[in-house]
Each structure stands twice: as structure tokens, then as C-alpha cells.
Amino acid sequence: PPPSGKVPRAVGTAQGRASLMLHALIYLIFGIITVFVQTPDNVFTKILLGLWMLALGTSHALTARGMHYGPATSTSLSSTALVQAASGALLVIIPDTLALIILAVCAGSGLPGLIKLLLGMRYRSAVAVWRDWVLEGGVLLAVALILPFVGEIGAKATLGVPGGGALIIGVFLLVGSLGPSEKAGAGRTKP
Q1: Is 97 exposed, middle or buried (0-12, 13-18, 19+ CB in 10 A)?
Q2: pLDDT digits (tens, 9 = 90+) for 81-128
């Protein structure tokens, strides 16, 4: 159990699955759009990335308010929502220079990715979606680490790296939301 002694409720409920499904759909829609955009300019790139971050921030805010995870986890999810929404808003209003777009995307995916990764590892025996949180956090963190190196290639790369990450996350979250209900830590043996 977590250090505070409060164990968050496992997410095998219909509300938990709906939350996971919403995240999955946001990731998949964004990822599919990036596949079909062949020659994006900086303006289109920043607007699309900004809308994606705003949608993710909104869905994390709804999850934090709607689920009964406990105060620490809800606060962490609210922080994730705030960072993503702020990055999304910044992307929509900043000048269309590639360096600023990359910086905003790295902030909007790196910090929330780290939070999700740590939440998944911390609550692996208490929350049924811990694997999804670890995967989502790891991929978002990878996007934030890779993007500065390949983003200078152009707007297509700046859109492609988050788009590829979004497709990976979206598929796994969709499978997790449609899969059989599992109690947190069920079936695992202690080493």
C-alpha cells in the first residue's frame, strides 16, 4: 500500500473504464490525424498540438474529479491536467516558431508523463489501471525526451513524434478499457 495508508479505489468500475476510454479516444484521434497530414506548417502543427493538449488536460481534470482515488492521487491527476491545459493554451497563442512549439510540447508531455509513470509505479498493488498509467507515462516521457532532437527537422517531425506516441498509448488504453475487469494486484505472487 502507499505510504499514507490510504489505498485508492481500484478502477474496475464502469466510470473508470469510461475514463480510460475517453483518454484512449483522444490519443487515437490525434494520432490518426497526424498520420494523414503530409505537409503541415508551423501554424497547423501548433494548433493541432494545442487542441490535443487541451483535450488531454480536460479529460485528466474530469478523471481527477470523478474518480475516488484519494486526495494525493487526485491532486497529482489535477496537476497533470493543469500542466497539459496550460501547454495547450500556450501552443494556441504563442508565435509559430518551431523551438517554442517543441518547448511547449515537451513541457506538456514530460511532466505529466513523469507524474503518470510515478503514480502507476506507486499504486501498482492498489489500482487496476497501474499498467496503463506506467505505459502512458513512459511514452509521454519518451516523447518529451526525443522531440528536441528530431523536432528541428521540421513541422512533420514535431507532429509525428507526439502522434506516434499517441497511437501507441491510445491502442493500449483502448485494449485496457475494453478488457476484462481485474482487481489491482490480483493473481500476482510476491517474489
Answers
A1: exposed
A2: 999 999 999 999 999 899 999 999 999 999 999 999 998 898 887 777
For the cut 60, the answer to whether the pLDDT of residue 140 exceeds it is: yes
Q: For residue 147, what are the contacts with CB-CB under 8 A and spacing of at least 6?
A: 102, 105, 106, 109, 158, 161, 162
pTM metric for this prediction: 0.84
Residue 3 DSSP code: T
Provide CB contacts within 8 A for 3, sequence distance 6+: none
Angle between helices 130-150 and 155-178 (to 10 degrees): 170
Spatial distance between the Cα atoms of 19 and 9, rounded to a whole number of angstroms: 14
| Three-class SS state of 106 | helix
